[in-house]
Amino acid sequence: MHAPRYPFTIRLVGFAPAECAQLESLLAHAPLPGPSYFCLHDDSLQEPDLYIADGGNPAALARLSCLPPGALQPILQVGGDGASSRRTLPRPLDPASLFDALAELLDSRVQALAALAARGERCLPERRRRPRLEPDTEAPAYYARLRQGPPDGAVLIIDKGGAFRDHVARVVANTIGNTLNTAPGNSTRPLPGAGGRPVEWTDSCRAAVRLCDETPVSLVMINTCAPGIEPYSLSSAIKSQEGAGRTAVLFLVGQSFKYDSLRARDAGVRGLLDKPVADRHLLATFQKLLALPS
User: Residue 212 — very low, low, confident or very high, per pLDDT cuts 50/70/90?
Assistant: First the structure.
């Protein structure tokens, strides 16, 4: 009997839908022993461990040019003209070569992260979700203002219970400090020593919409499997309110939830996180959407 394997995340970039499906199926059956892999949805806000890119797709290569070079953001290129300095595998893909290359890139990333931690530094999340059309000419503060929601606005979690709220509050507290609250009608259990950005919870759609209308809210996290919650309608109701333009809404999704990108965008959803959500992915998401310190 094999021990559970940690699922490393992969973002596929530039592949046609049919080839994406083939790669996802191949990666889902990674051989034992060795790492297991999970492909992120295009709308996922989660930071991937590895990228696999179509080397014959110029748009994919432009998107990857936004990433910092080196082992911290390892990229495996499939196909292309052979001129790239990235690790490249030819088509058709040989499964054994693919898994060997991924394991080597992953090992390089782990070593690079360890070296970074030894220097007391962190790997900053990539905030940009689309390639630059031209070089930056603005100061960093300009982009921070564009990303930021209401100053010191709350994080609001819509879920069937408060356990995830408690956990998120502690993650935020480790970064900037927070106040733990609930929306009206729910029990309140404050974290001792907290102060700063509030983290709130409700299991009611009405309470969520009212809270977003009456108080500044920077980020809304909706558990899509919470009973009595229609996530797309709830997001649309929140985003349709005056002043909610910069309030970021994201979905927490499980494997059984069929995420609809078109409906999500129409409802103003910024993206999704796959459950269970590791602390490092929560923190990276907060750094992207709340302009928290890195």
Answer: very high
End-to-end CA distance of the chain: 40
Helix (H) or strand (E) holding 251: strand 248-253
Helix axes 279-289, 163-173, angle to 10 degrees: 70
- Bridge partners (DSSP) of residue 90 are none
Buried b (16+ CB within 10 A) or exposed e, 112-146: bbeeeeeeeeebebeeeeeeeeeeeeeeeeeeeee
Query: What's the gap between Cα 272 and its chain centre?
Result: 7
User: What number of other Cβ atoms are within 10 A of residue 220's Cβ?
Assistant: 28
Return the amino acid letter for 134. Answer: E
Structure-token pair, residue 190: 């404050």
Where residue 229 falls (left for φ over 0; alpha for ψ -120 to 50; beta otherwise) is beta
Pairing of strands 269-274, 36-39: unpaired
- Dihedrals phi, psi of 10, to nearest 5 degrees: -130, 135
Compute CA 209 distance to the chain's CA centroid, rounded to the nearest angstrom. 24
Q: What is the pLDDT of residues 128-138, one digit of tens each?
A: 555 554 545 55
Within 119-230, where are the H helices? Answer: 140-147, 163-173, 205-214
Calculate the alpha carbon distances from 259 to 209, 223, 262, 290 in Å: 22, 12, 9, 24
**Tokens for 164?**
């995830």
Pairing of strands 197-202, 154-158: parallel
- Distances in Å between the Cα of 164 and the Cα atoms of 161, 178, 180, 181, 275 are 7, 15, 12, 13, 11
For the residues 268-292, what does the mean pLDDT come to? 86
The share of the chain scoring above pLDDT 90, in percent, equals 50
Return d(Cα 114, Cα 290) in angstroms, integer: 26
Helix, strand and coil content of the chain, in percent to the nearest 5, comes to 35, 20, 50
